[in-house]
Each structure stands twice: as structure tokens, then as C-alpha cells.
Amino acid sequence: MRISELAAASDVPVATIKFYLRTGLLHDGRQTAPRQAEYNDGHLARLRLIRALLGAGGLSVAAAGEVLRQLDHPPESGHDLLGAAHHALDAGAQPKQEQQQTDHPRADALLEAWGWQIDPEDHNARRGLERALQGLEDGGFEPPAGFLDMYAAAMRELATREVEQVPVNPPDAMRYVVLGTVLVEPLLLALRRLAQQDASRRMFSAPGPPAPGVG
């Protein structure tokens, strides 16, 4: 298909597709003439993936590019694969001066208390936890006693179940880990908010809408 047909099939404007080609997010089509190329279903699937990463995934172009590079060249080791996925997701997510920070005392203390086995050279996620804890303090919000431990236990259980489902084949595994991280995180947030609404309604007996077919 020509680029105009690819645009129509993907619902992505031609100008945007050309931008993705220039930045390397989308691989080139097969050259058929000096200024003309042919595209296939692989390009269509890639475009949909790019839209998911930039849209629902909320990634920057730089981070999406790193994710796609890791998907194209996955490491062999299962554990390295997870590290590569997280590295890809962290690309461009933090200012360079913050990326050099290796001091995260509160995060380290919590991780040690929980007994979590974290790579001592991997500072990205620990910086994220440190920043979140600082945000709680700056905002004057103190979680109730035991809540951080409760969150940690829930996340560890969820993560264990997720890792158990990682495919054996490296390319499939990389895709599962990366997309399962990027695209599921917004899902988790949405479910948490809906669950809070349900719990609040049940706890405080707020009147709800009538059941379907009632009235």
C-alpha cells in the first residue's frame, strides 16, 4: 500500500507518518520509485503500536523510540529483559541532572525493610519511589500506619503473578513485559479510582443509580 493508503488504514495523517519515519519510530517502506515507497501490514501494526505508546502509554517520542529499539533487539536473559524494558520506559522520563542522582535513603530503607532484591546499580525506580515519598511529605499527606506496607505487599503479589506469565521466547517476552508495563499502568490507575468509588459508595451508603431494567 502507498503512504496515503497506510494513513487511511491506520487513521494516522500522512504528515505524522512521515515524522515517524524521520525519527525512526517507523521503519522505511520498500522503495518502488525515487520518491515513492510501498508499505505493508507490518507498518500498519507498528503504527498502531506507536499510537498506543504515545497515546494511552503516555510516553514521549524519545521514550517510545527506546521502547521500540528494545522490542526490535531484546536481550536473551529473562531478568535482563525486564531491566531493558524498564530502562526503555525511563528514557527521557527524568531530567538529566536527576538521572545522575544516586542518593535515595528513604526508598532504600523501605526496600530493605521489605526484603526486596533490587539491583544496586539500578537507580531509576528507586529515584521514582524517593520522589513519590518526597511528594507525600511536601503535600502534607501522611499515609495511615501500615499503608505503605500494604501497597508493597499488593504490588509484590501482582508483580509475581505478572512475571510468572512472561513468555519464554525473548521477542515475545520483551513485547509482553514492555507493553504490559506501559499500557497496563494506566489500567491499574483507572481500576484503583473506580474501586475507590465503589468502596466509598458501599461504605457511606450513597444512593446509586437504579439497576438496569428497574423503574
From TrEMBL:
**Can the keyword DNA-binding be found in this entry's annotation?**
yes
Which Pfam family would be a valid example here? Answer: MerR_1
Q: What is this protein called?
A: MerR family transcriptional regulator
Tell me which species this is from.
Arthrobacter gallicola
> Locate the HTH merR-type domain: which residues?
1-70
Q: Which Gene3D superfamilies match?
A: 1.10.1660.10
List the InterPro entries hit by this protein, alphabetically: DNA-bd_dom_put_sf, MerR-type_HTH_dom, MerR_fam
Keywords of the record, alphabetical order, are:
DNA-binding
